[in-house]
């Protein structure tokens, strides 16, 4: 599962939100990087020994406790059987068990608590001197690559001095060696070692010093964990190489020395250059020197040849040739560019010419004239059709009017009787009682009459010589209809 890292923006600021897994992983990394491999002493409790072969327990003292895990590969190296309540000293790495988020120690080595006091004193002195900067690599001096004389500070009767002399003889037999005798075990050993170191510095006859003794228990190596000896080593004007005990042994003298060797023999290997190696190195350096000379000669020859070629290139005739060639190239490129330009211009011009011809006024006028002729013909035909339709409509209207006209009725012998006083048409005898003056309109002209009573038929008739008078004036005849014409 990948860590969840989400950025939220609140009030213009972003927040990096950790997932639990990411936080646990980063805390584990920080713990592992912040603490070196360290020694811790305490009492075992809650000891668990599952079938996997690992050991899980709690290491505690009167003030605190911490979970510990020792895996099977390290447990197999134990020389005793751990039990609850037992005082032990462990060498462990600080870490975090991520699934539960528990702070724990991963134990690489464990020993019974008999040496615990010495180990705790060692750790306290180590922390004190480290805080003062006595272990800083920047303050340590480099060893001379070819020492003129080597000094040995060790017991003159121990096995370590024999190993040192044997290795120095094998490495470089011509290298002079001076032994500064000292006790390497017991209560007087720190003072003896300090005195031997002071004597070597006072005589200043060696280029490097080896401080050595063979292996032993923590009590046996206690002299090399002395604070005064550590400060004397740092104060020495001659570089000091420590070769104390075996590879797994670590002393304060190892930490303050300019170089630490895992064993006395290894210290001699560090200090004395190998004669065979020197011989091989001289041979290799000779070959490298000859090689370098050959390379320099080749380089000088190449530089001379390059200079000659450069001079030939800088000759006026060569420059003129280059300029002439460049001029030919420019002319060819110019001709090619002009051709390309003309081709592109023609390709752009052809559509414009076609559009110009298509937009010519003469062609447009011709099209408009043709269109005008067509419209004129259509207008003439439409005019004729409209005139004929109007004539037919007029004839039908005249015929209808003539059919409905009262004049046509009058022409068939009918008359229209009206009363002159109100021009009212007489439709009923009651509308014209006897003695009523009426006008009778005929097809041609008008008659004026007075209505009289007729006893025989009970109707109103005109009688007497003055009963009916003919008007001298006539109405003009109505114009003939187009159909009569």
UniProtKB/TrEMBL annotation:
Q: What InterPro entries does the entry give?
A: Exonuc_VII_L (IPR003753), Exonuc_VII_lsu_C (IPR020579), OB-fold_nuc-bd_dom (IPR025824)
Write the signal peptide boundaries.
Answer: none
Exonuclease VII large subunit C-terminal domain: which residues? 134-449
Q: Where is this region: Disordered?
A: 452-485
Where does the UniProt annotation locate this protein?
A: Cytoplasm
The protein's annotated catalytic reaction(s) are: Exonucleolytic cleavage in either 5'- to 3'- or 3'- to 5'-direction to yield nucleoside 5'-phosphates
Question: Mind listing the UniProt keywords for this protein, alphabetically?
Answer: Cytoplasm, Exonuclease, Hydrolase, Nuclease
Q: Where is the composition biased (Basic residues)?
A: 468-478
> Could you tell me the EC number(s) of this protein?
3.1.11.6
GO-annotated biological processes: DNA catabolic process
Q: Give the CC-aspect GO terms.
A: cytoplasm; exodeoxyribonuclease VII complex
Keyword Nuclease attached:
yes
Q: Is Hydrolase there in the keyword field? A: yes
For this UniProt entry, the molecular function terms from Gene Ontology, in alphabetical order, are: exodeoxyribonuclease VII activity; nucleic acid binding
Per the database record, which ranges form the OB-fold nucleic acid binding domain? 18-111
Identify the NCBIfam families for this entry: xseA (TIGR00237)
Q: Which HAMAP family match?
A: Exonuc_7_L
Q: What's its job?
A: Bidirectionally degrades single-stranded DNA into large acid-insoluble oligonucleotides, which are then degraded further into small acid-soluble oligonucleotides.
Which family, according to UniProt? Belongs to the XseA family.
Quaternary structure and interacting proteins, as annotated = Heterooligomer composed of large and small subunits.
What name does the UniProt record give this protein?
A: Exodeoxyribonuclease 7 large subunit
Instruction: State the organism named in the record.
Output: Thiorhodococcus drewsii AZ1
